[in-house]
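[Automated response] Your request has been received and processed.

Submitted sequence:
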Amino acid sequence: MDVIREGGIGFLGSRLKRLGERMQAGAARVTADAGLPVQPAHMAFLAALDGDAQTIGQLVQAVGISQPGVTRSVGQLVELGLVRSEQGEDQRQRTISLTPEGAAVLARARVHVWPPVEDAVRALLGKDADAFMAQITMLETALAETPLEVLAAQSSQPILVVREYTDSLAHHFADINAEWINEMFHLEAADQLVLDNPRKHIIDAGGTILFVEARGLGIVGAGALQPSHDGGLELTKMGVRSSARGLKAGEFLLAALIERAQSMKGDPLYLLTNARCSAAVHLYEKLGFRHDAEIMARYGSRYERCNVAMRYPIAG
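Generated structure:
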């Protein structure tokens, strides 16, 4: 599996970097075959210095990379004897210029490296070569005007959304709940009955199952509202995958379930849990559930693990 390719447009930067590295590697072999002592990354600096000395700041603008990157490349070219660095008229700046050896390397590159590399790229891109380069130019201009992090902050797509139950999502309901129950307890017969056939025991019985989907992760949480024989409504089988911790998916889902329960008018709205589920109990308390001895007496015997029973106050 190619993770970067399968990652889609969100991995565009990594994909372009990888593509650039592959193309640079090929260009480096062409350059070496031509007997030139430079790397492809040096070519832009040699071209920028053709005919005119430049300061480091001017090279930053000409090549479009960071000042540390420019300084590093200039140092390499100085060591190769292809450019010279001299004190400028302004004592705070140095000017960079081609040596005769550098001018000779640039001339050979124009003849022996640039044309075959350009031909190779055009062969790769075919009739779309000019359109592709125009698209690259458009992307560079757009990023210069508005950085990627600014555009990302402007995204209006919600991170979390609620999904209604469908039979195609039933396996998520079973997997999510089996994960947390087995992690802390063990699946009881009452659990297995519902997880094996949620449509029969919840949906067809007049209940509801909601899922929370996290953008980029898929379905990460599930919870149910199961009618009781006496008109009550149990909030049950609610869990969130460990991979989604930190996203507040549980709070988001619980709020949606409470809102749905209020429209279903079941009374009492209650839940049964265990004190070991301290984070969940805290969340239930935060959103309005209260510990209730009557609920424990009426419904608590359903599960061996139940030692906490809570009721949500129904607005009257």
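Summary generated for your ticket: The chain has two domains: 3-153, 160-312. The domain at 160-312 is CATH 3.40.630.30 (Aminopeptidase).
If you did not submit this request, please reply to this message.
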